[in-house]
Every structure is written in C-alpha cells, then in structure tokens.
C-alpha cells in the first residue's frame, strides 16, 4: 500500500515552535531492570545503554551500584564507554551507597549521583522508622556527600505524592540548598491523578525556596495505568525532566513509557508547549532491542511500538486509509521507526483493501475477477484470523482456473 502523504501532524512545524525542552531521563536499566522478568547481564546493559545514547536520551540511569558487585561493574563499563548522555547512578542517603556510585561513575563524561529517601508518613513510620526531622537531616547529608564527588546531584523524595505538601516543599528546599540541581517528585506507587500531580508541581514551584534554579522532575509509576497522563500533567505543572522507561518496564505495572510520552509531546507539542530531543525514528528499533534482550514482548495493541499500533483491518477504516491516511492515523509510522502502516486482511476487511493488495501483488483486477476473488477471500477469512499474501495468490490462481 502506498497511501497519500498525511497532512497531520506537521512535525517540522512543531519543532520550529519555541517550546520548553523536557529532558528525558531513562531508567530502563535501573527501575526497569529491577522488575520481574527484566534482569540483564552487564554486557546486555552496556549494549542497551549505547542504544539509549543513540536515541538521544538526556540522562541514562545505569543502575543501583550498592545492590551488587555486578551492578558496579555494569555501571562502570557504561561510564567508560557510553558518550552523549549524562550518566546517573542511584543511592540511598547512606554513605556506602553514595561512595559506590562515585566509584562506579568514575570515567563518565557527565556523571550524576541520584540520592533518594522516603518522605511520606507511611514510609517514614513503617519503612524507615524516622521522624520528619531525621528524614530532613538524612536528605541533606546525602546531597552534601554526593556533591563532594560530583557537581550534578539529583534528589528524589520517594512516595512524594503521598507526602504532606508543606513537608515535601521543606525537604526539597533543604536538598536544593545542600546542592541538588534536580528535584525529582516520584509517584512511587502510581496513586496520583493528572489534576492532582499538576497542582503539586505548581505548589512546589511556588513554595520551594530557590525553586527558580531547580529542575523539577516527574517519576510516575503505572499502577492505575496513568503514568503517561500523570507525567504529561506534571509537565503542564512545570516539570522539565521526565523519568521513564522503554516499553514502560519497571516495578509492578511499570513506569511512564518513554515512547508514549515522547510521541504525545511530538504530536501535541503545541498544546503542551514542550518538546524532547529524542530521535523518534529510533523508538521502535530500541523497543525491539529491549524485548529481545529481556525476552519480554510488548502487547500487540501497545501504543507506538505494538504490532497493531499502525495496523488496520476493518473495511471502513481501510477504505478511509486508502483515500487519506490522516483519516485513521495521527502520526506517520515511519516517524517512529516502522516501515509503513499495515493493512491486515481478515474477515472485517472490504473490497477496496483487497483490490489494493491484489494490485500491489501485481495482479490486474477487473470487476469480474475482483468479485470472484472477493467471494473466496471472504469464505477463507471466516476460517482464518489473517489472510496472507500467499493465500491471496492461491485464491486468484484458483479463481482464474475456475473462470
Ligand atoms: O519510584 C520511586 O520512588 C523511585 C525512586 C527511587 C526514584 O524509583
Ligand atoms: Zn520508581
């Protein structure tokens, strides 16, 4: 099929519009890798880190070095080889964790230490057994220690979305004063909603002391299927970094899916007044690489990178697509790395799509021949989920023999 060029979206025009840059912080190798079914060897992590750099991510979170010697080795190998992105490593606000990060990041062109501590009442009481004051002290200690090793320090308030907003603002202000550049606000358990997270970012920008020099970051989990929507709402509230993963891998139901967020900003860039530096044509190849490495396939109907994302089977949709692909597609498959849209021939397909495919296969189809083939196509499609090109060739030859 060679459908007419679409008139939506004018990606080049979007790119010309002055917009806010939203930095993409990829955590596939840390939050993603620590989820069931996604663990990777050091060489797989290295290979994937190269792919992330080629994709154009601003920051790659390579791992959590304190968790194992293998994690230190993998982070160190990435730090030595991968160029083009900032390289982050995660640490609790413990001196051992922070020192392990500093060791592992040695050799990175642009190292970042990412320190975190839980701030919500539930985590303070049941996980840490610490008071607000103690959490505040540890956050400051963590940031200050990390700053002895690197200039670029990110602070995360774990379970931020279930933290008292005024305490969250207090911890963020202290982390900023201690030398953090990026303040990450994780929705650790995927609990928030778009309007709530947008309001929280607006509140923090108004209440964190020194907010104008901070980069606010969103880190949304997908427990309610809202991670992408919540990340977009955080951008509306002023987030200028989004933490995400390829294919949305991550703890439990995963993290914000990078391919979805990037394409939402690309297709609706004017609405969000924001853009990323991601080379979107590498999204599908990078998604496939991750699936091959982890053995975890994406579902067929996954937005952007699923097999059905640009596939059309129903007669009405196929007919519309043949006239103008903008009727049923809001972006070009080529722009995200697919070769083309797919017209799937099955029992929902109509005569127009069949005629188009027969023509592509080199058959001259007059009305009588098309009628004959269409009847046998329909009866085959009742028995089979999908009718392939080889099936069609057999049908045409059979119809010709009968004529
Ligand atoms: O979900 C979370 O809170 C995290 C932090 C460690 C950033 O992954
Ligand atoms: Zn997380």
From TrEMBL:
Q: Which cofactor does it need?
A: Mn(2+)
Subunit info here reads: Homodimer.
- Parts of the chain that traverse the membrane: none
User: What are the BP-aspect GO terms?
Assistant: L-leucine biosynthetic process
Which catalysed reactions does the entry list for this protein? 3-methyl-2-oxobutanoate + acetyl-CoA + H2O = (2S)-2-isopropylmalate + CoA + H(+)
Record's keyword terms, sorted: Acyltransferase, Amino-acid biosynthesis, Branched-chain amino acid biosynthesis, Cytoplasm, Leucine biosynthesis, Manganese, Metal-binding, Transferase
Source species: Lysobacter silvisoli
* Superkingdom of source: Bacteria
Q: What class of enzyme is it?
A: transferase
Record's protein name: 2-isopropylmalate synthase
Briefly state the protein's biological role. Answer: Catalyzes the condensation of the acetyl group of acetyl-CoA with 3-methyl-2-oxobutanoate (2-ketoisovalerate) to form 3-carboxy-3-hydroxy-4-methylpentanoate (2-isopropylmalate).
Positions binding Mn(2+) in this chain are: 31, 219, 221, 255
**Entry GO CC:** cytosol
According to its UniProt record, which protein family does this protein belong to? Belongs to the alpha-IPM synthase/homocitrate synthase family. LeuA type 1 subfamily.
What GO molecular function annotation could you give as one example from this UniProt entry? 2-isopropylmalate synthase activity
**Domain (Pyruvate carboxyltransferase) ranges:** 22-284
């Amino acid at each position: 099929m060679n459908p007419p060029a679409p008139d939506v979206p004018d990606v080049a025009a979007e790119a010309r519009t002055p917009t806010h840059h939203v930095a993409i912080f990829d955590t596939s190798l840390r939050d993603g890798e620590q989820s069931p079914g996604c663990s990777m060897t050091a060489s797989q992590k290295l290979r994937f880190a190269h792919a992330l750099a080629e994709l154009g991510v601003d920051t790659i979170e390579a791992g959590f070095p304190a968790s194992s010697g293998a994690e230190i080795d993998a982070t160190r190998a990435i730090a030595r080889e991968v160029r083009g992105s900032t390289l982050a490593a995660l640490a609790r606000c413990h001196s051992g964790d922070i020192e392990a990060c500093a060791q592992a990041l040695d050799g990175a062109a642009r190292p970042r230490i990412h320190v975190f501590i839980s701030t919500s009442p539930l985590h303070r009481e049941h996980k840490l057994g610490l008071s607000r004051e103690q959490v505040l002290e540890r956050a400051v200690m963590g940031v200050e220690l990390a700053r002895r090793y690197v200039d670029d320090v990110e602070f995360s308030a774990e379970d931020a979305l279930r933290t008292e907003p005024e305490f969250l603002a207090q911890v963020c202000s202290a982390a900023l004063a201690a030398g953090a550049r990026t303040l990450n606000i994780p929705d650790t358990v995927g609990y928030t909603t778009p309007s709530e997270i947008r309001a929280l970012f607006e509140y923090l920008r108004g209440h964190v002391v020194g907010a104008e020099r901070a980069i606010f970051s969103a880190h949304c989990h997908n427990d309610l299927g809202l991670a992408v929507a919540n990340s977009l709402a955080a951008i509306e509230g002023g987030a200028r970094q989004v933490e995400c993963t390829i294919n949305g891998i991550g703890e439990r139901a995963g993290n914000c899916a990078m391919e979805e967020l990037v394409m939402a900003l690309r297709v609706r860039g004017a609405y969000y007044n924001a853009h990323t530096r991601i080379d979107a044509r590498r999204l599908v190849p990078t998604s496939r690489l991750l699936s091959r490495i982890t053995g975890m396939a994406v579902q067929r109907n996954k937005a952007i990178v699923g097999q059905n994302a640009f596939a059309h089977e129903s007669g009405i949709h196929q007919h519309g697509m043949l006239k103008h692909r903008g009727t049923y597609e809001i972006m070009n498959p080529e722009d995200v790395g697919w070769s083309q849209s797919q017209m799937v021939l099955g029992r929902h397909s109509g005569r127009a799509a069949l005629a188009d495919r027969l023509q592509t296969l080199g058959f001259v189809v007059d009305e009588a021949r098309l009628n004959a083939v269409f009847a046998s196509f329909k009866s085959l499609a009742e028995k089979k989920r999908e009718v392939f090109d080889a099936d069609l060739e057999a049908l045409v030859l059979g119809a010709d023999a009968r004529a």
